[in-house]
Amino acid sequence: MADEALERRQAFLESIEKLFSLIRQWIEDIDLKIDETTIPIDEPPAGVYQAPKLTISDKKRTLIAELVPVGTNIIGADWRVDMVGPYDKEVLVYWITGAPEIEKTDRNETVHAVTRLFKGADQPGWYLIEDTKLGRARSLNKELFIDLLEEVANP
Fold first, then answer.
1. Can you give the residue range of the structural domain that contains 69?
2. Does residue 29 fall inside a structural domain?
3. How confident is residue 135, by pLDDT bands cut at 50, 70 and 90?
4. pTM assigned to the model
């Protein structure tokens, strides 16, 4: 396995651990239970490896959501974690340096502007791509996370 793929995989796993730690803090004052397990991820060239998965449930053990790591070979992002609930799914992406930049050129290939693919995503971190047509992303924070939990858990 290439050193670059190993380093990328390690950075992905560290980022997931930081995200899951934040999530634990965000819901500590809510009456929810968190269980952590691992799942296998198989992606070339990183190979097969174990990644943490969080399951969030209420006190009756009714599933609220699972946070499932997807991997490091993601189109348009550095890595991805899916929030999967009984009624919906939301995709969380991570950008190491912010969302990708695109160059706007004319027919002569003269660059006129360089802009982010998603507005609001100019820093490293976890994001929800809110609107692909308008190119909007929101940085993941406690308020947004709680809103997403409600979205995926309720009809």
1. 3-95+138-153
2. yes
3. confident
4. 0.89
